[in-house]
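For reproducibility, we list the full input for the flavin-adenine dinucleotide complex.
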Amino acid sequence: MQLVWFKRDLRLHDHAPLAAAARHGPVVGVYLFEPEVFGAPDADAQHLAFVVECVHELRARLRRRGGELLLRTGNAVEQLATLVQDLGATAIWSHEETGNGLTYARDRRVRAWARARGVPLHELPSGGVVRRLVSRDGWSAQWDAMVRAPLVRPPARFAPLPWTDPAADHVVPSPGEPPTATELGVRAHAPRTHSVRGGEHSAHATLASFLALRGVDYRRAMSSPLTAFDACSRISAHLAFGTLSGRQAWQGARRRAEALTETPDADPRWRGAITSFISRLAWRDHFMQKLESEPRIEYEPFASAYAELRPREPDPERLAAWLNGRTGYPFVDACMRALRAEGWLNFRMRAMLVSFASYHLWLPWQATSKALAPHFLDYEPGIHYSQFQMQSGTTGINTVRIYNPYKQGHDQDPEGSFIRRWVPELAGVPTEDLHAPHEMPALVAQMADVRLGRDYPHPIVNHATAYREAKARLFAVRDSAVARAEAAAVFERHGSRRARRA
Ligand SMILES: Cc1cc2nc3c(=O)[nH]c(=O)nc-3n(C[C@H](O)[C@H](O)[C@H](O)COP(=O)(O)OP(=O)(O)OC[C@H]3O[C@@H](n4cnc5c(N)ncnc54)[C@H](O)[C@@H]3O)c2cc1C
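The corresponding predicted structure, in tokenized form, follows.
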């Protein structure tokens, strides 16, 4: 009996550990709902709801081929030990996971337990992320080979499970059901519309609709929150929970690109759209590799020269204003409220939210990254912490980008319809005053029926002053000899060897 431990790889197809396990005997899958992981501050009830949809579908898919998926709640070592004993399993198979500090420590405990008990534990690579990577040189070539390799097929039929033989004296294990959010101790940080459904079916349908229809204007439309919700692929949660592999997405995009070359009358925007999408799939693993190589970047800056740049403890009022969408910057607040309601936001607006928190509000990224993690359905630690650091200037190797929230608002929401939707208290404000309502003449405010300080806050900081101060503080460190020397070491360890991406 082979036990396949599903983690953030909730799929049947292109699942190497599952296929390898099946070559050794009957297969039982297990998904563990770990209170430690789901009860942590970076988890949210939306993640649990998504996982529940995924495991129900995965169980049905496995059963159709004669397999099974057990659901268990509890500590990983204890649950695996019980299962190995009860099932008489001779090996455990899983993907290597590049997760947060908790799952990293849990995997070490599981490995130590398996070693001590003599249980073979086979952990296979996940996508293009390389465990114990020695050098970034050659990483891209390895990644290219990985995405081009054939997809791993699941067996059409698994070997019969021992308890399906009526003559065998084998106890049938209880399949188990998912726990409720309360049982698991997972928090719901905000009420949400569940915009992306879990499961492999939804993953492939989402990718297909992007590649066939929604993605045509991807390059332009990805920047504005007015268009990005529809024009971006929206596969991020599927990649994060593994209902789709990066290789499946890459090969789907390549097939589409090839089909386009044979369709001369196709919209010319498609070619660029697919190229941009494909490069982002590589970015995903590029960023995850950073956390895999240095798990400490969840808590510490890439470059230690920036360790004392910001206070360790966030200013609680500023943090609350930012997180609740009440900074007095309408476009920033609209983006935050949209994210909290939908569980998703486009890249540029995520970057602006973090830039605003890190530069304008001078909040430590360690606090803001933890606070925002539960609000992303697609929370992926490897991308999340790398991006938070990038947008906070603490990697030492990336171009510093301090977003001007007013400019972003005018560029990405020129008519103010996004602001009106998410900051309804400003709905009556004329468009020319909407991005900076504190500058609105008193008479206009009266006609719009808005009183600043009562209905909507005054700007929490002055943009020009905050921008100037942040830049001066950051560059005082960045220009130091220590930071410069460290930057070279960070690049050596993490920098992309492909042009234009650090
Ligand atoms: C502060 C901050 C935090 C972020 N946290 C996460 C996170 O927790 N999980 C997450 O998946 N993405 C994160 N991103 C990256 C990016 O915003 C999302 O991947 C993207 O918005 C997801 O939507 P999509 O699937 O429609 O992306 P698409 O634009 O359609 O891209 C396809 C896929 O490529 C990958 N990708 C796209 N952009 C990036 C990028 N800049 N870096 C790395 N991979 C990328 C993602 O896997 C994405 O699903 C973060 C960005 C920022 C600025």
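The first helix runs from residue 16 to 22. The chain has a mean pLDDT of 95. Both points were considered when choosing residues for closer inspection.
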